[in-house]
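dumping these here so i dont lose them again. two proteins, back to back, each one seq then structure tokens. dont judge the mess
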Amino acid sequence: MHTENTNLKSKVMIYGAGDYGKRLYHFMRDMECKIDFFCQTKSDETKYYDNIKIISVEQLLEMSNENIIQVLIAMKDTEVSAQIKGYLLDRISTNTYVYECGNFINQNITDAIGEKNFQCNVCGKTVKEFKQGGFYSKVFYKYHIIGGGLRDNVICPFCGAIDRVRWQYRVLGKYMSGIFNDKCTVLHFAPESEISKRIQANVLCDYYAGDIVQGRSMHVVDVTNIQFRDDFFDYIIINHVLEHIENEKKAISEIKRVLKPKGKIMLSFPICTDIDTYENMDIKTSGERLNEYGQEDHVRLYGKDFKTRLENYGLKVTVFSPQNECSKEEIVKYGFIYDDVLMLCTLF
């Protein structure tokens, strides 16, 4: 009989990181149920799926002594599933609960990631799969950070567009389509090459690509001291830049200054959904920043208060996310990040 100790932490893990395990994971994620780990008979410290660590059975048994564990066995073969359940129940502590989910998956969960063709909405190519991308950091492992970490289904093998760029392109086409068709002026910071090419295909567009590092783009532009005149740009695109800028207030002030009164800003950065924005100006070295923010050149970790933070600078913020804009099938087909966040901002 299980006796629950309320002093223990509760963990949920999926036993099986194959097709059935991934199906169950996507179903649970869509239901906003957190999965803490995957488990396989044998694993090592370098294996992850969607930033979730894949642990070994030995690690599971050790963990069960200090935590309340819910184990969801995701196996197609019912005999194998029963064997795994029996093996675990013979060895784990009384704080662990084990459920066989194979039949449930087979009867209720469609194949969200099975063998099918994906499509890059940027180049239009159909691909067998998107390549893995990103990198592992202990901060990304500790927190759920949208757009951060090592993850599957990231890079288009044809044009190189990554998951968040595909989402940017979708939002641009739907909510800022004038950038591709109309006469306009555009300032694009740290330009994503795939999007840059498509904007420049608009012969009516006066396009300025800028980066703080000389040679990376057509203009050297410091976002805290933009060299262009007031009220100059119809559109400004600044994705995954502000997390590198110490003087955030000055940067946003400059962006507002060079934007036309009815102009639009496309803005994004990695967001940690577990905490409010965290920054510590005493953290200076690359090692310290890597440990605190997940990347050596980041100066803050944006949190769930991101919208209010931007509104306090005088921006009207509209948030777009695949989970609200797209069907589950579209998210899978185009390889979007389910809870990706992209903001379109205007001046009050």
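---- next one ----
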Amino acid sequence: MAGGDYSDDGRSESEAERLDRNWNELLQELRVLQTGTQILTGFLLTVAFQSRFEDLNEFQVAVYLVLVVLASLTTALGLAPVSLHRWLFRKRAKDAIVRIGHGFLQAALVGIALTISGVSLLIFDVVWTRTAGVVSAVGTLVVILLFWVVIPALAGRRR
């Protein structure tokens, strides 16, 4: 584009075009995160109404309640960019929407990583042993960190 600003990724686009593209990319990521988070949250909310729930010990109930809170907060974080956009829509605040939305998305990813790991802990603890639960939770978290942090960081360095 003649006369356009050049962003750091080699594209020739204006600031407004870059922000629109970044917002659209953020929305695509949010759609994936929101679906998974909402399904996981819904699953957790139904657990308390199962007949076997009464068999859980105090530790398992505590883990379950922490997971419900964590999943609920993660769902709220995943939906927060939508609310942010609604509040700032047509106020020439796309830069703030993208920047703050990015922060919400990163926080939601941390929340979903902890929730997934915690669900693994709870399920293995109920079905097998506490030790298996802890190993499963730590292993799950390590794999998530590898896939979500380490590999992208290494890919970014190679670029």
